[in-house]
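Allow me, if you will, to draw on your knowledge of protein folds for a short while. I have a record of one protein: its chain in single-letter code and its fold written as discrete structure tokens. Could you please explain, in whatever detail you think fit, how the structure tokens follow from the sequence? The record follows directly beneath this note:
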Amino acid sequence: MRCRLCCLGVVVLWLGSAIGQGPPLAAPVPDAALPFAVTTPPPAWLVPGTRLTFKTIAGTIPASDHDFEVDPEGRWADAEGNRYRRIENAGTGSAGWLLANVLALDDKQVGVQLLFYLWNGLDPTSSTESMELGYVTNAGCGGDLWLHPDALRRLQQEGVPGLVVRPMDYTIGRVTYHALWLFWPRQQGRSVWIYDRDSGVLLYTSDITKGGARHTQQGVQLSEGATTLRCTTFEASRQVVVPWAKVPAPAVVKAARGFDYRAELTVRPVAVDTPLPFRLDYDVVQRSGDWLLARLRAPDLIPGMDLRVRSAHQLTGLWIPPEHCARLQLGQVLDRDPIVGTTVSVGYVDADSVTLVQQGPRQEFRFTYRKGDGLLARGQFTEQLPITPGAPAMSRVVNIELSNLR
């Protein structure tokens, strides 16, 4: 049971994300990413439905190759007589795809959904959707995902105190961009951004923060903190075509203050496969036009990871307009992502409901919508778990069902 409870703590990242947990994101920090105010509008090419895909890595480098844990039988002792044993202190790291989906946009605000796809080791063709973050912020920068070319020109001409600004050519693959390099030194680290001066899109960003929290037990400092490294490189941009993008949200969505789902987790096969129940509840905290920002309430959700943006500009959100539910045809393919390898298609249709299936290399997500009001009524999210050679295949399955509309 303890292992199953541990699984539950990471499952809630779909609806909040899908199933599983990724590493720290090399992602923008809304309203705090850039060390200067942004007053320009978003770039002209940016519209709802835009998807920016980045390659991202994150890691920690410990200050020492060893650490200490409390152990009454340990060989090491402090001045108070507390005893410890010495353990290996290895660094951590991960790599994956970061998808930034623009789900809402006007001249002042943008609603962004970030999805992190964790690679299987260093294999970018076998990734799993493992984390989601949503935020609404300044449309002129989207956190730090873009800047209007006019803002870049002003930065180059006028500068910002404490920020080093240099024009440069920057090459990604076979494409060379006329770029602007921004360097921000800090007491405990530094941040770098490189933007394309023509479009304003973020081409590269990295952040190094030295000496994080120190490991302390019983009031004794046992080790220095680690250095954290995050870096992100632009991969591609495309438009996700949503047939109902310009259709207003159903009246029931516009009036809702919250969406509550019953959920259960099952790991198969195991000796005892009794589903573990839990809840996923959305509280609407902001809305405008065709989008909403909701706070997710779920067991053991990581602080700061509880916001979700939902809008008409996504295929597998909280609703589909009822008139479009009726038009969807079995087998119809709605989207293919050539980088992460996912396909969204219509997997089931009957008189009362329609099911969209998002199929990935190691995951299958099923979203079932009621034709009457268009709401997401049920979901099933399945992930193939990594296994050792010779072991039976295992999967983690989460089922959800709408239980209350507030």
Remarks:
- The chain has four helices and 24 strands.
- The chain has two domains: 2-239, 251-405.
- Residues 1-32 have pLDDT under 50 and may be disordered.
- The CA atoms of residues 261 and 403 lie 5 Å apart.
